[in-house]
Write a structure and sequence with these properties.
4 domains; alpha+beta; disordered N terminus; 542 residues; 28% helix
């Protein structure tokens, strides 16, 4: 496990937990005989999105030997294409998904508490639109949302007159009444990376740019073949248990490994657009649409507004996704019904799209498909098992991981008790109201770092900014500045400790500096990374 250098000693409000356990905690009935067959790993996870990394972290922390392979970069698909929210899903109440909403609402504050650098509270403004959902229904739904469970620190709902609040200024004057409630915003791709980092710190082997090829049961274990997509080298590993967390590719993995060709996953494309900041306050808007959907307008990266999302069934390769003109038009029309200042496709600075792998429950409309997760095991009683993860949402990833590991323990035997509910993610070992103090302490120890750059770094790394800065004592020690305060020292950290291999990994997933950097700056960063010797990441298996 890596440790912070003494250079930047931040106070620690949390700790990594001692997961030792007594023999009495282990069930008397041992695992089946096949579990005693020697194998390289107890668990092999396929997929480096939020679900796969969350399961790898939980299992490694309980004492299992774990490997994870991801064919591209961590969070390279669905998990970096979300609406950047940790939320209960207010509209799911209309579909009577009370258990899903309750679980998500409980998780809001758990994830916020354990990762306060990448998760922040957010107030959401819901204007009343005459002719759509009536006031009484909105009031009822928000009352349930407030009290169904999980809210302890976040403030509750209020109703107010938009004409008497600055939040009404960007809106058309016809909107007079609104409600305001609490959720949280999240840096989704960094949440994935932090789970992978913690899994590696606890012994997991994380292999990015490693494509799953085949798996077969032999002599009581799985024989797993993978390929390094950078070098073409093939590798074979053995494991007692496979977790198929491949998201949009889950059905393909299942077909390749055990020959099951059933359709379990419904691919739904969700797209977002980013425009210049449309309002000056820090609250978000939730707009109702005539097709009974909702669209968010969220403050984003200080200078922008994020607008999304869409729901369209996706056919074909899950990696082949682009925001369509139809989706851009839909999102612009949705917000233009509310904002006084209209936006058009010419105002779009950046657009991104991802395929959500929802469990196929047979619903007719994409927006009606369940966001709940389904875990299904394949194999006979005496077979080495595979657990398939279908569906889910970023808010409930930790609970999904706990459920998955509980199933694994039924086969491999229990190890340590559950632990992730109270354990901070890397860099998150400070209180939810301690960010300003953390920034102040970092500024006093690193006066040579620009204020805006320092805040960005604290937002991204939390207390792990100590690892990023290391022993640097001046701006020169941070190395070349590629633009927007991104220095060679920070890039080196991301390559050595966070599996970054390309400029896109850094500019669009480890950060969102791609919004600000020029093509020339991006090219310089790419060249620098390409010419740098490939450094193995601790826990990468390289």
């Amino acid at each position: 496990m890596r440790h912070k250098p003494p250079f930047l000693a931040f106070p620690r409000w949390g700790k990594r937990f001692d997961l030792s356990h007594s023999q009495e905690e282990i069930e008397k009935e041992g695992p089946p005989a096949w579990c005693n067959v020697p194998a390289d790993f107890d668990i092999y996870v396929i997929g480096g999105g939020i679900n796969g990394c969350g399961i790898a972290r939980d299992a490694a922390g309980r004492g299992f030997s774990v490997a994870l392979c991801e064919m591209n970069d961590l969070a390279g698909a669905t998990s970096s294409a979300s609406t950047k929210l940790i939320h209960g899903g207010l509209r799911y109440l209309e579909y009577y998904k009370f258990r899903l909403v309750r679980e998500a609402l409980v998780e809001r504050e758990v994830i916020w508490r354990n990762a306060p650098h990448v998760v922040r509270p957010l107030r959401v403004v819901l204007p009343h639109h005459k002719g759509l959902r009536p006031v009484w229904l909105l009031r009822l739904g928000l009352a349930v949302y407030d009290h169904i469970g999980g809210r302890t620190r976040l403030p509750g709902t209020r109703s107010f007159d938009l004409s008497k609040d600055d939040v009404g200024e960007p809106l058309k004057p016809s909107y007079r009444r609104a409600f305001e409630y609490s959720d949280c915003t999240v840096d989704d791709s960094r949440l994935v990376v932090l789970n992978a980092r913690d899994a590696a710190d606890r012994g997991a082997v994380i292999k990015t740019r490693t494509r799953f090829r085949t798996a077969s049961r032999r002599d009581g274990v799985w024989r797993i073949a993978t390929e390094d997509t950078s070098t073409g080298e093939e590798e074979t590993s053995t494991a007692r248990f496979i977790v198929n967390a491949a998201g949009p590719w889950a059905d393909q993995v299942l077909a390749t490994s055990v020959g099951r060709t059933a359709k379990n996953v419904r691919l739904v494309q969700g797209s977002h657009i980013v425009v210049c900041k449309m309002f000056d306050h820090d609250r978000s808007y939730l707009f109702q649409t005539s097709d009974k959907r909702v669209v968010f307008a969220i403050p984003y990266q200080q200078d922008y507004t994020l607008i999304g999302t869409t729901d369209l069934d996706h056919e074909g390769d899950p990696s082949d996704t682009e925001v369509t003109p139809r989706e851009i038009s839909y999102l612009c029309d949705a917000v233009n019904r509310y904002f006084s200042q209209a936006v058009s496709e010419d105002d779009v600075i950046w657009a991104y799209s991802g395929v959500r792998a929802l469990y196929d429950d047979g619903t007719s409309a994409a927006q009606d498909a369940t966001r709940d997760y389904v875990l299904r095991q394949d194999g006979e009683k005496d077979d080495a098992p595979i657990l398939n993860v279908f569906g889910g949402k970023i808010t409930t990833y930790r609970r999904l991981a706990e459920t998955a590991v509980k199933i694994i323990e039924e086969h491999l035997g229990p190890r340590h008790p559950s632990w992730t509910g109270t354990a901070p993610l890397p860099g998150g070992d400070f209180s939810v109201d301690g960010m300003d103090e953390l920034v102040s302490m970092a500024r006093s120890r690193t006066p040579f770092i620009d204020t805006s750059q320092l805040r960005r770094m604290v937002d991204a790394y939390g207390t792990l900014i100590a690892d990023v800065v290391g022993d640097a004592g001046s701006a020169a020690d941070m190395g070349e500045d590629f633009g927007c305060g991104l220095t060679a020292r920070e890039v080196s950290y991301l390559m050595e400790c966070e599996w970054a291999q390309t400029a896109d990994d850094i500019l669009w997933r480890r950060s969102k500096l791609g919004l600000r950097m020029s093509p020339e700056q991006v090219h310089r960063l790419s060249e620098w990374m390409r010419n740098r010797t490939r450094v193995p990441v601790e826990g990468s298996g390289v």
